[in-house]
Amino acid sequence: MEPKALVIMLKVPEPGAVKTRLVPPLSYEEASGLYTCFLKDIFEKVSRLKGVRVYASYTPAWAAESISGMVPDSIEIFPQEGVDLGERMYNAFKTLFDRGHKLVSLIGSDSPDMPLEFIEESFRLLGPARVALGPAEDGGYYLMSMDEPITAPFVNMRWSNNTVLRETLKRLDEKSVRYELLDPWHDIDRVEDLPLLKENGLAPRSCEFLRALKILF
To answer: Could you tell me the pTM of the whole model?
Structure first.
């Protein structure tokens, strides 16, 4: 059993279920296609990690067959469990700690161009720190790593707003949990974010998809 694990939180790329804030100018089908490229860029990137077991945790739970057809064989999949994002994230952490991993990192699927070094650095920060966080420019975070499951960052959290990171750090401080911060990065959630993918070698599939649409390039 590898001591380190990475779990990617993802959705089944169905039109109308993913990247809906990019519609318009994209159609629902194009937004779904772009999200599929996000996943391909992420899968290719994390395949280069050394000494890390990679998992993908998907929603909805009934979509195992759809997900298994697009996730590389080297990545084990399991369904997300919980009534909200916080519960699903906590359960993903707990699942991997229960399997015997000692350090677990969790990322979403909205930052296809996130440098691989951020994941590696998050593991290095765990030692004196118990939690490592990657601040997102929208006020949330793009990555969290922990050395054991901690409930404080997840219970009764108000998600999808610009106070998530600030509230998370406040809760960790209240529990005297030492944390370290990585460099800030961005999510690709809004139309204004799409130019970040222009000529972006860190997300080649996503960049190529947008270029083919001739919307921005």
So the answer is: 0.96
